[in-house]
Amino acid sequence: MEMKDTCAVITGGASGLGEATARVFADAGAKVTLLDRDTTRGPEVAAELGGTFVETDVTDEASVQNAFTTARETMGCVNAAVNCAGIVIAETVLKKDGGIHSLDSYRKVIDVNLAGTFNVARLAADAMKDNAPAPDGNRGVIINTASIAAFDGQRGQAAYASSKGGVVGLTLPMARDLARAGIRVMAIAPGVFMTPMLAELPQDALDTLAKDVTNPKRLGDPREYGQLAKFIVECGYLNGETIRIDGALRMM
Length: 252
Ligand SMILES: NC(=O)c1ccc[n+]([C@@H]2O[C@H](COP(=O)([O-])OP(=O)(O)OC[C@H]3O[C@@H](n4cnc5c(N)ncnc54)[C@H](O)[C@@H]3O)[C@@H](O)[C@H]2O)c1
Prior knowledge:
Layout: E1 7-11, H1 16-27, E2 31-36, H2 41-48, E3 52-55, H3 61-75, E4 80-83, H4 103-128, E5 140-145, H5 149-152, H6 158-177, E6 183-190, H7 196-199, H8 203-212, H9 222-234, E7 242-245
Parallel strand pairs: 1-2, 1-4, 2-3, 4-5, 5-6, 6-7
Helix pairs in contact: 1-9, 3-4, 4-6
């Protein structure tokens, strides 16, 4: 699929990897609709890119359904969906103060990162299924965001890594389910990218993270995530796989 023919819904589009993806896509001629719960930054980014912002909670069925209705009305169709909305927590299972990992916080991360991703993906498929097919039968592509924590989860990441492992796990069966509809499903597993999610960490912690990257020795630039998402849209033979983008970082 060419970028000029791409009508993309991007969740988490108000910040970080989602915002960068929206910029890469719009710069290449795609139409974009940004879904986010951030009603300050979201409309600003959308206006800058000539796109549309829809206030959305990815965990809420009616909210996402409404967003896809708006996206189809404003862009004419939806043939790409990129799931970047997500949250992170750090909590160990048994804490130094004697406490135990909260079940509520575990469920919250699973709800946003995994159920929210699935909610958007399934409604994206519904929005794409009646698109006119390309000569190879393809009607659209869904890109989910996992994390290298799905494979190398660290201390304090039981909840986050579970949610991202779920995203990796749903990619192949969903690609198989949607094959008949001509919809591809891919996932990206980023390493450590310099986004607002990380910006709260002190500089020495960021320096340590960068030092552990094999090559190049720096954090990922969110635009590099956007470039990979763009390549996945354009390369119609990619399907059912999770691609790591991490400078060969393997976390211990
Ligand atoms: N930054 C990294 O190093 C990194 C690494 C691996 C994976 N990831 C994943 O990439 C994705 C994007 O991360 P980021 O670094 O850009 O974070 P970010 O905090 O900059 O952006 C996340 C966006 O998601 C939105 N959001 C959160 N919950 C939402 C909800 N329920 N409904 C709608 N929008 C919601 C936030 O408002 C925010 O705009 C996340 O899934 C994250 O887990 C990030």
